[in-house]
Each structure stands twice: as C-alpha cells, then as structure tokens.
From TrEMBL, chain A:
Organism: Electrophorus voltai
Domain Phosphagen kinase C-terminal per the UniProt entry, residue ranges: 167-409
Top-rank lineage group of the source organism: Eukaryota
Entry GO CC: mitochondrial inner membrane
Name of the featured protein: Creatine kinase S-type, mitochondrial
Stretches assigned to the Phosphagen kinase N-terminal domain: 54-140
Pfam families: ATP-gua_Ptrans, ATP-gua_PtransN
Subcellular location: Mitochondrion inner membrane
Entry keyword set: ATP-binding, Kinase, Membrane, Mitochondrion, Mitochondrion inner membrane, Nucleotide-binding, Transferase, Transit peptide
Automatic annotation (TrEMBL), chain B:
Catalytic activity: creatine + ATP = N-phosphocreatine + ADP + H(+)
UniProt keyword Hydrolase, yes or no: no
TM segment ranges: none
Organism ancestry: Eukaryota, Metazoa, Chordata, Craniata, Vertebrata
Official protein name in the record: creatine kinase
C-alpha cells in the first residue's frame, strides 16, 4: 500500500491552501486527527525522522505565538518557518532548536526579549531569513546584509572617563567571546564544552602582571573558595531564568563551568555560562577609563594567547563578535555603572532622558531585577553598529549628564531633556 | 523535531571518554548503572526518530539526586528507546522494579471483578481514594522528544476518543491554552488542574517544551474520571473520589480505560504495550501497569511509630506528602500507594493497597487506644 505517498500529496494540497491563509489559529484547528492518523504504521519500530517530515509538513509544527511578545515571534511567519524547518547547520542544528526558548517564553515583564539563540556560528547564516529581521528589530534597524560593524578596542581614545565617586559606586565593562569551531552553549556537547574550558584556561594561565590570576572550576571549588567568590560577588550560579534554561544552556551543570579572576579582582572571566566566555573588567568607584583600559588590554592579550595555539574568536564584518544571543552581537559590550540618582530617578523625565542618551536602567541585581532604592545600574542600550570605544564614550558622556542633572535637582534647579543621539555612524 | 542533544553526529568527533558525563556527585539509577564502556557502546546508536543515549540520560546528568526518592535519571523518547538502549535500561529496570529480569513477562489484568473487597476502607481515616496510570499512543514520539505536530495530533486523537464516551463517562475537554479564567479556577478548586512542570526532573528531559500547546484536561461531568493530555505522558488516566471505596474507584478506572482503548482501536491506533514491559511510558519507573493506586489517610500515631517505614516496606507500599511526589507529608495525613509498577498486575497492586491500608488503619486505631500493634506486624509481601 502506498499510503504514505498518496497521503503526502493529499496533505500537500490541503496545507498549501492553509499556508496561504497566514492565520495560525486556522492552521492548527484545521488539522483533524483523520488527516494524519490514517498514515500511521502500527509497528513498534517507530517512524524515521525522514518519514516524520513527510507526515508533518511545516504547518503542522508551526508554533502557536498568539500570546507572544518577543522579537522572534514578531518576525517569524509560516512561510519563513516552512522554508527553514528542514534545514540544518553543518553541525545538524535546526531552526526549532534556535527558537525553542522564544516559544517557551512568551514575554518578559521588563524587556522585550529576543526569543531565539544560535547553536553555532553557522546558525546566523543558515537561518538568516529569521535572524536578520530579528537583528534588525533588536538593533535599531541594523541590516546585516548590507551594513558593516566597526570593532575598536583602542581605549586611548576615551575622554573624561572618570566619574564623581559620590554618585558612582562602581564601574564595569563586560563582553563575551566565542571560540570558533566549537558549538555554542545551547548546543555544545560535553566534550566541546570541556574543550572551551581547556582552551580558555590555558590562555588565561599566560596572563601576567596585573592580569595574572587563577581559575576556579565550579566542580572542584572548595567551600571556602565558593564563599569567597560569593562575597566578592563573582560567583555565578546555575541559571534559573527560563530564558536560558529553555535554550538548553544549563545542561550538564556544573561540568566545565568556572570562573577565572586576576589576583586584584578587577578582571574576571566566566567560562561556559551563557557564552563560551564572558569577560568582565570592574572596580569600585568611578574610574571607567581605567576599567576600559584594562578591558581592552586583557581582551587583546587573551586573543593573542589563543592565536598562539591556533584558535580564534568567532567574528565577521557584518555581525562583529558572534555570541549565543543575537542581542549581544557586534561588540557584545555592556558598559555600566552603579550610580545613585535619588532625585533624578523620581523625575518623570528620567526615562526619556535615558532613551535619548541611548542608556538603559536595570536593578543592581542584573537584568532580571527591578531597581531597589536609589541605586541604578545604568548602561548602554546598543551593542551592534557602534564600536566599543563609541559605546563606552556614550556611557561616559551620558552618566556625566545624569550626574549633572542630579546635582542640579539637588540645588533646586531645573534640568533639560537632551537631544537624542544618532543611531548609526554615518 | 529533535531537542538539544540530537545533533548526535558532532559528538562523534570526540572520544567516548571525552564525552562521558561526570557522575561523581550523582545518586540515581542511571548513575549507578552507566559505565564508560556501556556509554562507548551505545553512543553511536539512535532510534529511528533520532533519539540518542545522551537524550536518554540528560535528565539524570542534570539532576544528581532527589531528597525523598531515588530517581531513575532516564527517559524514553519513543517506544524503540527501550529496545535500542536495553543495555542501559534493562539493568535500571531490574534495579528499580525489584529484580525484574529482561526475560520476565508482565501480566496485565484490568478485570475489577478479580479484586477482593476494597469497598469498606474507613472514611474516618481514609479521606480519598485514587488510581492513576498512563498510556502512550503507538507510533508517536514521547513527551521528551515529540514535535509540536505530533503533540497536537495526540491531543486531537485523545479528544476525539474521549468525546464519544457516554453515561458516567460523559465529559468535557479543557485545552490549557483556551481555558477561561472561570474554568481555570474551577479546575484548581477541584484539584484537577496540572500546571507547567517546575520539577527539574521533568524540565531537563524536555517535556515542558512549547507549553501549553496541545496540553489539556478532560474530565467526566461527575468529576470522578480524569485524563491529562500531554503532561509527562501522552495520557494520564485518573479515577478518584472522596472516601474509602477503592473498589468503586478501581472499577470505574478499568471500565473507562477499556472503553478508551477500544475507541482508539476503532480509529486504527493502539497503546504502546509488549509482553515484557507491559504498558510503555516515558519514565522507566512507570512501566508495566504504570499504576499508582493510593489513598490520603490519617495516620498521626502510626506515622510516629518506629516501625512505620518497615511496615510500609513489608506491605510494598510507599508514602508521599499529600501534594504529590515532590512534597513531604504535612500533619499526620499521608498519601499511601503501591510501591511497585512492573511485575504485578493492576488487580494485584490495588489488592495490596486495599489490604495494606486496611491494616494500617487498624494499627492506627490500636495506637489511638493505647494498645500494642506487635501482633499485627505483617510478613514481607
């Protein structure tokens, strides 16, 4: 009986009609049990993945995104899904694996989430039809097909990079780096993850001077080391955010995860958390210039050390540094301060001022927290389309402006909403 | 479509040793059984639908141990998993199911006439009675591995079948994603509503993907027969009522299940079943009957007795908190149910519960009256 063949063409015409309707609810509701059920083989050996693709055309698998508010849900259409569902990267990573986190997490209360991740460098290429509109949405219209991203880690170009310590409690710059040739955290196998750890730790062992430091593997950490790292606010924990766990990043925890930091505790690397590596430069007080100097110096040195062993970072001229989440493409850079703004934060113009300065506020506990008291985490909104130097300067200029406003309000003077900064370098 | 580890070809670029999970902190059945040699032999195998050994064990790698129960640490992605990965699963099944051998045959008995008594458990102590099991629809992948299309097809089949039930089984389906606020509240008040899993045991295996798509609850108008669709298994079938008439609960259970099975057969579908493993479900702990028959029973005195644990063990019973498997008991009220699933028939298991609970209540009454229970101590069943 050629049931499968006949069924396929029957279903193909039915589904072609449905696809043209572009109404997800109608697509799903019209799938009667009879359409699919009669094609089944009752054998215990199950259906092959290839047969499954015939039995379930893309329309049968299209996710229900009616309650969703993330970039993926805004960009995905049945046509795009249908075109991409059966494609794989050279490492067999699929579209469904990219979007799973966005299907599972309809929306975040404080931030419009991206709703998709890359499993490897090639994801951005193979699934460009969905990644590009998502990147455009998230990064203010940046078009990876035609635009080029500037990389600039020359910290000597920074001006006025020191803030008033009375307001700025701490300064921090972070980014991420991925090791080319190894799959990203949502997708990597245990051996790949261990390889990332090995490559990174070996390179970091070569750092000298003020950058010389030590690695603490999460599996081997002693109680005392753990407590110290917690007290220093360095220890990262197993992710609990469903945005990360649904993307598969927490698999095999805590295998091959760890923290490296220099002896002075001002340069810190996270290994195999949300990205292969997260690189952080930080210190108490308002010397953002020194923080960024160290950041650039450390990054360049680490890059040199991995090159020596034949490795490189994932990077291309359209997307800049390639990281797991499309929101971190380009520079992957978040430069920020913890700053006290008791009066300004209560001013109704606060949000608008931040917007125009291309800054973002968060609670001091990080992205999933609300601000507590008067201390805010203020950082750059943008990641892609502007260089590292440009973004850090934007933060510096912006924070100076905010502190200025705060001082004016202290004196009972009025403040002005600044003109909006231009989006991309012309 | 594949979940996380199914890009099984990449890992073949590394040796088995490089890929072998770190199980040094682990205490679950999978960690006890898996060895580097076994892993090396199994790592290049997959079922027809692409489920590999790393998919089977992911939940066990991610969850080193559970405080109240020794967990299995493995799941099946389809019916074939139990065959392709038998080298791993057979020893786990043997360990978990009291020495059940790969050559043993499992008896299915859903004839409630074969149950003796069971209608007279004292309602002053036995607050409610319940029997549940699961069923998987042959030909579809299981919850850790199924695609959205498959899950929806399962929902459609279930709803179609259930909608033709009549008499005491006539009822209604509530899809999780279409539920009104009012319906949701009612289902919560009835203690019927299941929520998106929060247990890391379930989440790590991929069962919560795409929630709440194609999940729902069906129950009869009398609220005594309930089916969960696409939670941890394709179908979970539950018969329950207040009080101690376990016989009635079991009779309804068997009748309902048999009807559902024939409705599926009419449409050309069967349940996953074989004579060695009985009914095939997602978790190896639920093989065989998949049956958990139990009561909520007040045992404030007996539960403090030093031999409580031993008595339960001899009776082949298990205690849980009244909130389900991940909870501890509150006050003196316990959920007491059969510890076994495989190697005993449904009738045999419910008989153990009925006889065992009767004895426990008798012991409770004695202790209440300040009397000894030494003469009541049971033999090992």
């Amino acid at each position: 009986m050629n049931g499968t063949g006949r069924l396929s063409s029957e279903m193909a015409s039915t589904f072609t009609r449905m696809l043209s309707r572009r109404n997800t609810a109608a697509l799903v509701a019209t799938l009667g049990a009879g359409t699919l059920a009669s094609g089944y083989l009752l054998s215990e050996s199950g259906i092959s993945a290839a047969d499954k693709k015939k039995l379930y055309p893309p329309s049968a698998d299209y996710p229900d995104l009616r309650k969703h508010n993330n970039c993926m849900a805004s960009a995905l259409t049945p046509a795009i899904y249908s075109h991409l569902r059966d494609k794989e990267t050279p490492n067999n990573w699929t579209l469904d694996q990219c979007i799973q986190t966005g299907v599972d997490n309809p929306g975040h209360p404080f931030i419009k989430t991206v709703g998709m991740v890359a499993g490897d460098e090639e994801s951005y290429e193979v699934f460009a039809d969905i990644f590009n509109p998502v990147i455009k949405d998230r990064h203010n219209g940046y078009d990876p097909k035609i635009m080029k991203h500037p990389t600039d880690l020359d910290s000597s170009k920074i001006t006025s990079g020191v803030f008033d310590d009375k307001y700025v409690l701490s300064s921090r710059v972070r980014t991420g780096r991925s090791i080319r040739g190894l799959m990203l955290p949502p997708a990597c196998t245990r051996a790949e993850r261990r390889e990332v750890e090995r490559v990174a730790v070996q390179a970091l062992a070569g750092l000298k001077g003020d950058l010389s430091g030590r690695y603490y593997s999460l599996t081997d950490m002693t109680e005392k080391e753990q407590q110290q790292l917690i007290d220093d606010h360095f220890l990262f924990d197993k992710p609990i955010s469903p945005l990360l766990t649904c993307a598969g990043m927490a698999r095999d925890w805590p295998d091959a995860r760890g923290i490296w930091h220099n002896n002075e505790k001002t340069f810190l690397i996270w290994i195999n958390e949300e990205d292969h590596t997260r690189v952080i430069s930080m210190e108490k007080g308002g010397n953002m210039k020194r923080v960024f100097d160290r950041f650039c110096r450390g990054l360049k040195e680490v890059e040199r050390l991995i090159h020596e062993r034949g490795w490189e970072f994932m990077w291309n001229e359209h997307l800049g540094y390639i990281l797991t989440c499309p929101s971190n493409l380009g520079t992957g850079l978040r430069a920020g301060v913890h700053v006290r703004l008791p009066l300004l934060s209560k001013d109704p113009r606060f949000s608008k001022i931040l917007d125009n300065l291309r800054l973002q506020k968060r609670g001091t506990g990080g992205v999933d927290t609300a601000a507590v008291g008067d201390v805010f985490d203020i950082s750059n909104l943008d990641r892609l389309g502007k260089s590292e130097v440009e973004l850090v300067q934007i933060v510096i200029d912006g924070v100076h402006y905010l502190i200025d406003c705060e001082k004016k309000l202290e004196k009972g003077q009025d403040i002005k909403v600044p003109a909006p900064i231009a989006q991309f370098r012309k | 479509m594949p979940f996380s580890n199914s890009h099984n070809k990449v890992k073949m670029n590394y040796t088995a040793e490089q890929e072998y999970p770190d199980l040094s902190q682990h205490n679950n059945h999978m960690a006890k059984v898996l060895t580097p040699e076994m892993y090396a032999n199994l790592r290049d195998k997959e079922t027809s639908s692409g489920f590999g050994v790393d998919d089977v064990i992911q939940t066990g790698v991610d969850n080193p141990g559970h405080p109240f129960i020794m967990t299995v640490g493995c799941v099946a992605g389809d019916e074939e998993t139990y065959e392709v990965f038998k080298d791993l699963l057979d020893p786990i099944i043997e360990d978990r199911h009291g020495g059940y051998k790969p050559t043993d045959k499992h008896k299915t008995d859903l004839n409630p006439e074969n149950l003796q008594g069971g209608d007279d458990l004292d309602p002053n102590y036995v607050l409610s009675s319940r029997v549940r099991t699961g069923r998987s629809i042959r030909g579809f992948c299981l919850p850790p591995h199924c695609s959205r299309g498959e899950r929806r097809a399962i929902e459609n089949l279930a709803v179609e079948g259930l909608s033709s039930l009549e008499g005491e089984f006539k009822g209604k389906y509530y899809a999780l994603k279409n539920m009104t606020e009012e319906e949701q509240q009612q289902l919560i008040d009835d203690h019927f509503l299941f929520d998106k899993p929060v247990s890391p045991l379930l989440l790590a295996s991929g069962m919560a993907r795409d929630w709440p798509d194609a999940r729902g609850i069906w129950h009869n108008d009398n609220k005594t027969f309930l089916v969960w669709v696409n939670e941890e298994d394709h179908l979970r079938v539950i018969s329950m009522q207040k009080g101690g008439n376990m016989r009635e609960v079991f009779t309804r259970f068997c009748t309902g299940l048999t009807k559902i099975e024939s409705l599926f057969k009419e449409k050309g579908h069967e349940f996953m079943w074989n004579e060695h493993l009985g009914y095939v479900l997602t978790c190896p702990s639920n093989l065989g009957t998949g049956l958990r028959g139990g009561v909520h029973v007040k045992l404030p005195n007996l539960s403090k007795h030093q031999s409580f644990g031993e008595i339960l063990k001899k009776l082949r019973l298990q205690k849980r908190g009244t909130g389900g498997v991940d909870t501890a008991a509150v006050g003196g009220t316990f959920d007491i149910s059969n510890a076994d699933r495989l190697g005993f028939s449904e009738v045999e298991l419910v008989q153990m519960v009925v006889d065992g609970v009767k004895l426990l209540v008798e012991m409770e009454k004695r202790l209440e009256a300040g009397q000894s229970i030494d003469d009541l101590m049971p033999e090992q069943k």
